[in-house]
Design brief:
The chain folds into 2 domains: 2-33 and 185-273, 3-Layer(aba) Sandwich (Rossmann fold); 39-177, no CATH class. The chain is 46% helix and 12% strand. The chain contains 10 helices and 7 strands. The protein has helices at 12-20, 39-52, 57-67, 81-89, 96-108, 116-129, 137-162, 169-177, 224-238, 267-273, and strands spanning 2-5, 25-28, 190-194, 203-208, 241-247, 252-254, 260-262. Helix 9 links the parallel strand 4 and strand 5 (241-247). Helix 5 (96-108) runs antiparallel to helix 6. It starts with a strand and ends with a helix. 25% of the residues are buried.
Amino acid sequence: MVVIARNRFVFSRLEQHLKEIDTPYTLRKGERSDEPTSLFGRVLDYSLRIKLNPRDWVDGKKLCSLLQIASPKTWDGTLYLREWSESVAKSSLPFASVQGELIRQITELDEESPNIRKFVRSLDNQLTGLSEANIDEDQRLELERSISELREFQAAWTGFKQKGLGNSLRAFRNASALGQLTKAAPTSGLTLATVHTMKGLEKDIVFLIGMCEGVFPDYRANTRKEVDEERNTAFVAVTRARRWLYLTYPQQRMMPWGSTKFQQRSRFLDEIDS
């Protein structure tokens, strides 16, 4: 038996419940599944890399592309982050003011002994405050993902400190790159898996959870080609079952900022019915 979902975020409430009832489980994720997917999460990741190595032109150009700004002609060790934070805050990027504040605060982090708790609390409050703004559904889903990935960053830092791997940002980045922050998976218990880790595998009983709009298909699938790719991924998921397949979706979900949001069942369920 296996429980499958489109991405790792769908499992959060299930994982919480399994811990409460002391049931062991294994979460199988793809090699790239721990990488941030929201714009906020990616800006956080690349900005930290550039702070630690201002000569890193490879990641620097990736960050410039994300921020939709011109890349410097030379990467001579100058830290451009503060300059970028000011231009980003005035840009048309999603949640531009918070993106700019994120970069600014990263420039001010003490590399040897950063106050990550204060850093996360400040940005979490700003992101949560955006939930009251007049934003569309895709922006709300992007906001949810941004908050989740910020909290994942804090959890990773907490694990780093608890393992006694160091105190500095550089030691944290090194530990992350070496996979030292990844929790050892138990060898028994319920298997939770993202769709992409189940390619080529089958189980007698499959639960495919989180089948609602914005999750499966993903909210970022805006073109016909992207929706078709999501549909192919859904096909992979439903064909993992040898005997029994259970398809579920939540009627409502609790958002990171505390409000309840009603859900719309995935269009793929209607396509299966037809």
